[in-house]
Design a protein that fits this description.
With 1011 residues, this protein is of the alpha+beta class. It has 28 helices and 41 strands. The strands form 8 sheets. Strands 24, 25, 26, 27, 28, 29, 30, 31, 32 and 33 form a 10-stranded mixed beta sheet that branches. Strand 2 and strand 3 form a beta hairpin.
Amino acid sequence: MGSTGKPSKTLRIGVDVGGTNTDGVVLDPSRALEPDKGIVAWHKAPTTANPSLGINDAITTMFQTAGIRPEQVASVTIGTTHFVNAVVERDAARLAKVAVLRLCGPFSKHAPPCVDWPDDMRELVLGYHALLRGGLEVDGYPIGDTDDDEIRTQCAVIRDKGIRSVVVNGVFSPIDTVERQEERAAALVRAEIPGCDVVCSKDVANLGFLERENAAILNASILAFARKTIRSFQDPIKRLGLDCPVFVTQNDGTILSGDMAAKLPIRTFSSGPTNSMRGAAFLVQSELDEDMMVVDIGGTTTDVGLLLKNGFPRQQAAYSDLAGVRMNFSCPDVKSIGLGGGSIVRNGETLTVGPDSVGYKITEDALVFGGKILTSTDCTVLGDSTVEIGNRELVKGALDSEGVAKFKAVVKRKIEKIIDTMKTSPEDLPVLLVGGGAVIAPDELKGASKVLKPKWSGVANAIGAAIARVSAVVDTVKSTESKSTRQILDEICQDAIERAVANGASRPSAKVVEMDVLPLPYIANKSRFTVRAAGDLDYSRTEFTTLHFDEASAETDVQMDEYEKHAKSAEKKEKSESKEDFDIDNYKPTIKNRVWYVNETDLSWITIGCYILGTGGGGNPYSVMIRLRGMLRKGDVVRVVSPDDLPDDAAVATGGHAGSPTVGIEKLAGDEMTEAQVELYKICESQPTHIIAVEIGGGNGLQSMIVGASSNMDLPAVDGDWMGRAYPTKWQTTPVVFNERSPIWSPNAMTDGNGNVVLMPTATSDHQVERVMRAALSQLGSSVGFADPPVSGAECKRWAVEHTISQSWRIGRAVAKARKSNRVDNVAETILAECGGPEAGQVLWKGKIVGVERTLRMGHVYGECIIEGADVVDEDNAAEVGPTLSKDTPRQPQFQGKIKIPFKNENIAAIKISQSVVDGEVKETEGEVLGLVPDLITVIDAQNGEAIGTPEYRYGLLVIVLGITASERWTSERGLKIGGPESFGMDHLTYKPLGKFVKPRSVIDEFDVTV
């Protein structure tokens, strides 16, 4: 605790209530440029069970130290981990049962609420759910109107169950500005169940139906606890005589009013790292005006985030995961490694630092404090005579000079590695070191233009809370048919600024700090716009001064002790341990009499493989996997047979899903795929005996198993497909390549799942089928199920790319193995081994995405991804990968330079970029072609081994680019014309195979048990 200077008339108090410590700071913003940064007082003390006591102690101590009077305080802003901890700890005392009302019409029935949650979380939180009429298409047209009587009926059920928290979630509700279906339904629920909490999903998160619903459910579950907690924050403010607004920080570095935090507590999740980042930036604001990396080193972990020039942290690209629950609300992109002041150091053949730590026991266990465990703090004291921590004499002789040098090299390499992972471009960035463990970090780091350790960095989180701003986000889909993208963007920017002002920002300071435009594939003249605006709080406004709670929910005495942690049962641990013990090497799928009966393990591996074979396209198979997994759990039988076993007169159907991935994440499938099959066979002469996937890549790779499941058409799925990958059009299929008859894909059927059917009994060509169906697709909500006519068993054996379900299974198994052995850095080589060995393909590149461009042409997203060569080896496993390097021997990346990957929904090529200097300027030209269609060019996340689709490409991702030789079905002259570079408008490139095609090994052949 300490103080400097005299207070001014408008002081801001920041308090960060952490799991271990409660930090406080009093700040005078008008003196921010002075040497003391306007910091009038600061305080650090252990967090108390009742947070109000800790807050009261912090503020009282700072007032006394600096002689501050209550009337000088303009605001109090509090950061807290209380709400996120309630979820992480699965605390039944703090989590209430929730009922979910979906406005979805016939859609999403196969993925009920909480379908992808851990079992214990779902049992704890989900009390009831119902699927009701309502929802919108992507263009805002209603799927159907809501039914007030239907909503009232469900309210009666919820009321009888005693549930007091309700979520209303409508399809495409974030873009619903006209129908206002969620708001109308919520008003009905409040009228029918007086005093209940109702959460509209659109208030919580943006596009992404399941993920938004998940976030809304968690938010609803902690509402009652949030009200009590926010009230406990308010109590000390009242006791101290402060007449000022109380705010709570949210995870994007801005503030919520106490009222809003009590309604949307989920927005406070992960606000701690954001506060630290913004607090650190404030401490060096006079020195830096650019993007900066903030490295927060604590006792156990190091958290690293990129603070953008606009003063806000970079946000995660798509999804976040909390306690096993997948969500899509805004969250700072922070990566953590096991390195801190308490990290345990072991000096064996290879010196290691962490990831385990003595944690808060450092003052007992570290050598400098009289303990017996060598920690990174001890080694730092040994290696730097200027560091005064503990008793230096107690650590003498623990390491020799060579050992200290090794320690410094390991710490330096770990920090440099995590910084490089977070960077968005190869240019050096300033690095700010904060946190109590920052003393272990070196003063120079590779990739850092400068390294700064600002004063008061130990309370950077409280400073970040004190300076938090006000923001608003608009995320919507708009038509660009009658207005230009620029005009629409200007309108949305103005809307975002107005919302920020409405939230409390002063109008002169409110500005747009972030914007993004993403064209939507297969949807004419539609783009998704995301804009964030922020500004300083307008202190002249009075509506923030006090909290307002409904009288029915107010309590005169806030008792927080009831929420103290309780011991958890060991049951959950036993479940997770048994999962870890799963023996991948000895697992055998169930195959009897040459029929493969797919189970959940098989499904998880096939799903991973399908996305990798999708070569960036095909759509993320996650939601399809969730549906099929649910069917298996209900007892569905899913059969797969080898194409080798097909009778010549078999009738092999094809079916799947077509549409925009953006629609797919919001309007979840109904029964459109099976309905399309029913409609087609009303006009087809023969009934199907088997079914095959149109493409193995992406979500469609699983559709033959869904349509063929015992509760649907009860047909065995053929282990193969018509592409061996994913392609953007229907005429890019192997039956069209063989051209034995034309057209192949007529008659056909297409349904939207909402009663609309398109039949095409005849067609002049397969190109015409594609044109007509694409036109109809845009009028059917850009998401449909389709059914194509059956081919004979003999034709299937000649035309299909064989054993691709087996290939997906083997690829998924390879990824699972790599994860379990912590060798994801080697996953590409493991995948190649499963796909036929080194001759079947190549690891084309390893590095970091440093550039992404996208544009929309004729319904397809074209673009280019730039990847700079970099080392993707996890430094924590470096000792296993190769010999220990000295501090003077930096690890050289295996791939140097840059490549570009052009894509049209799917990746087309991997091309080396050549650089030359012309007239003093660096020019970039296309160099060596590393890989080219029809060979498979797939981008894999170097951190988890899974595929990254083209919509998910973003700056800073560490990736591995894998090339797999295409099936010989595609390498004929006609095959190359249809599926090679010419079909993508790249006829200036000549196809050369990556290697020799190796036919995928059949899982059925390997594991069959014939009775």
